[in-house]
Write a structure and sequence with these properties.
Layout (H helix, E strand, L loop, with lengths): L4 H16 L3 H13 L1 H23 L2 H7 L1 H23 L13 H20 L2 H14 L6 H26 L2 H7 L3 H27 L1
Length: about 210
């Protein structure tokens, strides 16, 4: 245990700092919590956490070699991610004030909302090229190449659970009925702010891409 435990503590620290930093996941969970409430936002958080396993799988599969051999693949991945974030941002920028009936919906509508929220969280994190590069670097630099696969999988599962837990906590706080009721009249302005934040993130992805190409 002592051989890998210090390495695990380093992962806990580095991953914790990365997750706590504002980014597209933070913006999407916040936007969902304001618009659709606590439960739906927690489902979004679970989607974000699940996407971590995708990045872990890519890292274990040695996708860094593929990106190095085919930069166009990473560039295309980045463009798709920027377009998706811009799409989500537009939804926030054009948000309307919450009606009095917000939160009262049929079981079918609730199920569709949960499904859409999960997919939103999954795609937001899964398409984030910076998240992919972060995990590739983490597995290449922090984690020993000789580390057993079962230990690497444990690291990956921990990071997925920790990510989901952090954003679920964020969703629980922001999406609380009391918090939302206080913000009901101004919630659409907060959504517009998160929408602008998503546009800024999307723009930065493209600026970095063009800068690297130049």
């Amino acid at each position: 245990m002592h051989n890998w435990f210090p390495e695990f503590l380093t992962i806990v620290l580095v991953h914790g700092l990365a997750v706590a930093s504002p980014g597209p996941d933070f913006a999407v969970v916040t936007q969902t919590a304001i618009r659709q409430g606590r439960r739906v936002a927690i489902v979004t958080a679970l989607g974000v956490g699940t996407a971590i396993l995708w990045h872990v799988a890519l890292s274990l599969a040695g996708v860094s070699v593929l990106f190095n051999q085919s930069p166009m693949l990473l560039n295309g991945f980045t463009v798709i991610a920027a377009a998706y974030l811009a799409y989500l941002g537009w939804g926030g920028i054009t948000a309307k004030p919450l009606g009095e009936s917000a939160g009262s919906e049929s079981q079918e509508q609730a199920a569709n909302a949960h499904q859409g929220a999960y997919i939103k969280g999954l795609l937001t994190n899964g398409l984030n090229p910076k998240a992919t590069l972060f995990f590739i670097a983490l597995f290449a630099v922090v984690i020993s190449p000789e580390r057993q696969l079962i230990v690497k999988l444990f690291y990956g599962v921990y990071m997925a659970i920790a990510t989901a837990a952090w954003f679920s906590l964020l969703a629980w706080f922001i999406g609380s009925p009391k918090f939302r009721s206080k913000l009901r009249e101004k919630s659409h302005w907060l959504e517009r702010v998160t929408g602008i934040a998503l546009w800024i993130i999307a723009g930065k992805l493209l600026i970095d891409l063009f800068a690297a190409a130049g």
